[in-house]
């Protein structure tokens, strides 16, 4: 049976301090620590590194085709796509506890002049997730934390429905806005 938690952003912000600044960091770190998966973390869609603001892992390896203005600087950064980093990661020889994947979300109602080119370079969200699962299997990583709005076909350990509450979001019915799901990657 899958464990599902429902978390409201306001619950986390009541804690205050560093937790209140990036509530998703609290969600990610708590989830990974609960399962003992927070020693060596591979994040294949690193972005700004906000997930590690509250507490950083012992070894944090980030993979992303773009260098962002980091909130948390990774220990090792590989400027590649998910599918282009395998050779470098194998050469590192690190056994990762978990692979974290947070593919960029596209708003289908918004038009970006260069979106087609950007999608070609980094891939669609579905393709990034698919390639992250393949990479996990090839590197022998047994767990995957996925920040995605739909579930994928892997054994699910825990699913967190996180509701964003913010002045700038129009979420009057407090509907779930995102999922953080921990999967067991069957190798």
Please outline the helices and strands.
Blueprint: E1 3-8, H1 9-13, H2 17-21, H3 23-34, E2 40-43, E3 59-63, E4 76-78, H4 86-92, E5 98-101, H5 115-122, H6 125-139, E6 143-147, E7 156-163, E8 178-184
Parallel strand pairs: 1-7, 2-3, 2-5, 3-4, 5-6
Antiparallel strand pairs: 6-8, 7-8
Description:
With 187 residues, the chain is an alpha/beta fold. It has one domain (3-184): Rossmann fold (3-Layer(aba) Sandwich). It is 28% helix and 22% strand. It has helices at 9-13, 17-21, 23-34, 86-92, 115-122, 125-139; strands at 3-8, 40-43, 59-63, 76-78, 98-101, 143-147, 156-163, 178-184. An eight-stranded mixed β-sheet has the order 1-7-8-6-5-2-3-4, with helices on both faces. The longest helix has 15 residues, at 125-139. The radius of gyration is 16 Å and the shape is globular. The protein starts with a strand and ends with a strand. The model is unreliable at 107-113 and 167-171 (pLDDT under 50).
Poorly predicted ranges: 107-113, 167-171
State the name of the first-level CATH class. Answer: Alpha Beta
Structural class: alpha/beta
- The tally of helices reads 6
Strand order of the largest sheet: 1-7-8-6-5-2-3-4
Q: Which geometry do the CA atoms define?
A: globular
Q: How helical, in percent, are the residues? A: 25-40%
Number of folding domains?
1
The pLDDT mean sits at 84
How many beta strands in the DSSP annotation? 8
How many whole angstroms does the radius of gyration measure?
Answer: 16 Å
Order of helices and strands: EHHHEEEHEHHEEE
Distance between the termini: 21 Å
Architecture (CATH level 2) name: 3-Layer(aba) Sandwich
- Largest sheet features: 8 strands, mixed
What fold name stands as the CATH topology? Rossmann fold
Indicate the proportion of strand residues: 15-25%
């Amino acid at each position: 049976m899958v464990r599902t938690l429902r978390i409201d952003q306001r619950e986390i912000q009541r804690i205050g301090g560093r937790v209140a600044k990036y509530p998703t960091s609290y969600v990610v770190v708590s989830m990974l620590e609960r399962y003992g998966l927070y020693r060596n973390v591979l994040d294949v869609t690193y972005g700004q590194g906000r997930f590690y603001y509250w507490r950083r892992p012992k070894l944090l390896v980030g993979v992303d085709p773009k260098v962002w203005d980091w909130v948390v600087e990774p220990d090792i950064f590989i400027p590649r796509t998910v599918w282009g980093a395998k050779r470098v990661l194998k050469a590192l020889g690190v056994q990762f506890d978990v692979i974290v994947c947070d593919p960029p979300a596209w708003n289908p109602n918004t038009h970006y002049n260069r979106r087609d080119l950007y999608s070609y370079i980094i891939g669609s969200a579905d393709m990034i997730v698919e390639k992250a699962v393949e990479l996990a299997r090839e590197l022998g990583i047994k767990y995957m934390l996925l920040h995605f709005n739909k579930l994928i076909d892997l054994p699910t350990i825990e699913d967190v429905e996180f509701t964003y509450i913010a002045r700038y979001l129009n979420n009057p019915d407090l509907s779930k806005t995102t999922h953080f799901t921990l999967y067991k990657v069957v190798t």
